[in-house]
Amino acid sequence: MRAKVLGVCKTIGDYAVYLIVRSLICAIQCLEMETCRAWSRVLAYLACDLFRIRRTVVEENLQGSFPDLSADERHQLARRMWEHLFLMICEIAHIRRKMHLTNWRDYVTFGGRREIVQSLLDPRPTVLVSGHFGNFEIASYLAGLFGFRTYAIARPLDNPFLDRYLNEFRGSKGQFILDKDGSANFVADLLQQGGTLSLLGDQHAGPKGCWIDFLGRPASCHKAVALFTLTSNAPMVVTTCTRDQRPLKFIFGMEGLADPNSLSPEQSNVRGLTQWYNQMLEKIIRRNPEQYWWVHRRWKGSPPSRKALSKAA
Question: Can you name the residues that pair with 219 across neighbouring β-strands?
Fold first, then answer.
């Protein structure tokens, strides 16, 4: 009986949080984008300077990645990151109402359009890799808008109401979320049928992951990202969706392409290919560091011994 009561209370609490979030989204949708930008700056100040949310994590990440920056420069960069995160939420709230097939050129500039489309139209499967950078949700939305169905692997949100709402947004134009637990068979069938996987390549994979150098420090990556390409003859395309100065203005482009039919010797194994796509992500981040999620705990733990690392590669 006690467990049942606790379950009911949790459901009520989850639904209350869902209603609050939906109400906030409705309020955001009533605002002009420039007003959203102004509020994002205010909220960034509160998060960074007043409440100091995850300040230790952000400071450690920035100090390790940009050791030459002064403390004040790192602080300014952290505040701009928070502004980016709040503005990203506003853009996601507005995008379904504003961007359509008839007006997408008002919002998006393409870089490497031919190569991206060729990869997506290739009868072979495709692995799209990005990171916690720019507005990756808009990138997936844009691919779906153009009729390219993609599948992403992610852990469901703890709040089932919010999880369903977010998945409805993602699926409205053709991006579908696969639970990271129990989706192996579906992914294998998808790749065999020439489907498209869209993955965030900067997720921490724990001590048993593939350890590489990322922004000057050891980082653990999921081996599956590289294995999808190496075992399925699936070209890996590193993509980016960078905000271009103003809200809802993006540059969608391709940073690099690794085709299994023409990989260099350094890219022909899991560690080499993993290091390659992380180098591509690093270039993207260093160009616009304020658009990376420095609140993300990317660097955890220590890599295994050199002997174990060579065996894993």
Answer: 212
For residues 132 and 293, is the Cβ–Cβ distance under 8 A?
yes
Torsions phi, psi for 213 (to 5 deg): -95, 125
- Structure confidence by residue, pLDDT tens digits, 196-235: 999 999 999 999 999 999 999 999 999 999 999 999 999 9
Quote the CA–CA distance of 295 and 16 in Å, as a whole number. Answer: 26
What are 58-96's pLDDT values in tens digits? 999 999 999 999 999 999 999 999 999 999 999 999 999
SS3 category, 271? helix
Instruction: Confirm if 196 and 126 have CB atoms less than 8 A apart.
Output: yes
What pTM value is reported for the model? 0.91
* Contact (CB, 8 A) for 242 and 108: no
- The H or E element spanning position 191 is helix 184-192
Distances (CA, A) of 289 to 21, 135, 286: 28, 13, 5
How many angstroms separate the CA atoms of 10 and 26, rounded?
24
Helix H or strand E segment including 178: strand 175-179
